[in-house]
Amino acid sequence: MPFLQIPLLTVLLVTAGDNEYAFQEEISFKIIHSSSFYNHSWVKSRQSGWLGDLQTHGWDTNSGRITFLRPWSKGNLSKEEIKELLEFNHALFIELRIELQRRASQWQLKYPFEVQLTAGCELHPGGAIVAFYRFAYQGSELLHFQNSSWWPSVKDEIRAQLMSRRFNQYHVANKIIQRILSDTCPRFLLSMLDAGKADLQREVKPEAWLSTGPNPGPDRQMLVCHVSGFHPKPIWVKWMRGEQVQQGTQQSGILPNADGTWYLQVFLDVEATETSGLYCRVRHSSLGGQDILLYLEHPHNSVGLIILAVMVPLVLLTALAFWLRKPWPLFTF
Ligand SMILES: *[C@@H]1O[C@H](CO)[C@@H](O)[C@H](O)[C@H]1NC(C)=O
Ligand SMILES: *[C@@H]1O[C@H](CO)[C@@H](O)[C@H](O)[C@H]1NC(C)=O
After folding, report:
1. Which of 176, 269, 272, 280 has the CA that lies 20 to 30 A from 252?
2. Mutational pocket test of ligand 2: of 74, 187, 192, 197, the residue with most ligand atoms within 8 Å of the beta carbon
3. Are 251 and 189 found together in one domain?
4. Residue 155 forms beta bridges with which residues?
5. DSSP letter string over 289-303?
6. 76 ligand 2 Cβ < 6 A
7. Which has more confidence, 125 or 156?
8. CA distance 1 to 24
9. What percent of the chain is modeled with pLDDT above 70?
10. Is residue 331 part of a domain?
11. HSE on the CB side for 246, CA within 13 Å?
12. Measuring from each residue's beta carbon to the nearest atom of ligand 1, which residues come in under 6 Å?
């Protein structure tokens, strides 16, 4: 199947047919659990669920309650199935915490330390779904789960070997994990993509504006093009002059807004005397080929000023005429 690597296309094109998905890139659902072990009695845990870059599930740390952040975050799982998953999840992390605290010195885990578990499944463009479950210590992957067992991700790592050996003694839990990964997760992912189709594929136009950043040096200027409120995530933003993309255009990460849309800044460091004719160009699927062009120095500035110079007194005169002719509406009874 030929692949068009055009960043403008939506990442995900879910076809009308049942359970038939066609898209440009893989998309995954994952649950990320992280625990900070401050000392042998103090642990802080956080957990969240993500569909691609979009957070779909949150957890209240104190009550352990899950929050469904999207109307479609439950996919088509039944109430009972969700309850069962949450109970298993809860039990698993309590057990994990106990194990890590009990064996911290044996496994040479030095306080304070951070562990992260990432479990999920990924749908590939051909339709294959690959599940994964990884355990990381201090930000580096130590173990991964495959065929109902834990395996060291780094060879010759004594800690990884000891830990995988211990984790593999949990036969029943590992059987359940295997089932969740190979059966529940793919079903859940597909059903969420289906239920959330309208939301995931919605087109929202970006707003864009310009500003200047802190001066990068004497006689230089930092130009900033802000683009916000767009959906889906793929976007193309460049500083240009004429048809030329400016070398040295730099881009921030694409950051999430609270409403599920995206935000981005694109920078250009230029000589203060070299700014004329520069503009920021924004291309996005929601704009239907009509790029947004934002000029640093508006070529019609002088015309604008003349219009303003004529309009302002005109408006004031009209207002004055009205005011003199009629009693002020607030004072009429
Ligand atoms: C563990 O760490 C927490 C948070 O830093 C602190 O409040 C508590 O006193 C510590 N407990 C022990 C036993 O060191
Ligand atoms: C839920 O959705 C999945 C994927 O679309 C499908 O395979 C499964 O049959 C659905 N289950 C129910 C109970 O509707």
Report:
1. 272
2. 187
3. no
4. none
5. T--EEEESS-TTHHH
6. yes
7. 125
8. 11
9. 82
10. no
11. 25
12. 38-39, 41-42
